[in-house]
Design goal:
By secondary structure, this protein is mainly alpha-helical. It is built from six helices and no strands. Mean pLDDT is 89; it is low at 14-18.
Length: 145
Amino acid sequence: MRFTKTLTLLCLGLGTAALAHGGVKNQAVMERMTLMTDIKEAMAVLGNMAKGKTPHDAAQAEKARNALAKHAAQIPELFETPASDPKSEARPDIWLDWPDFMAKAGAMEEAAKALDPTNLEALRAGMGALGGSCSGCHKPYRIEK
């Protein structure tokens, strides 16, 4: 139950990011927002399987897991420069505590790599760590709009 609640909150929170893309003028911020949307989409694939909303498909789950690991690896490069935009959801704390932010991005990449997509039970078991890595970063470093 705790896993489902965490995953639902994560997906809802990420879903609002797509609405915030309109009017973004800073290209670096737009690239970050696009990356987060890509992460949201991969998480939705895995989350829907884990919650039983869609049938488990090992190939699709592996594709989503690989996408998450790839996207997590891109976070440091896209957030390295403290770019700003009125539509940005990135807190300035990212750059004030860069080592912690980097550790959290690394935790997401590791959780994605560790996720076993081969069967539903293994997928569900790994989703808690993956969802926790997302919320662990969003709470201190994302502005709720």
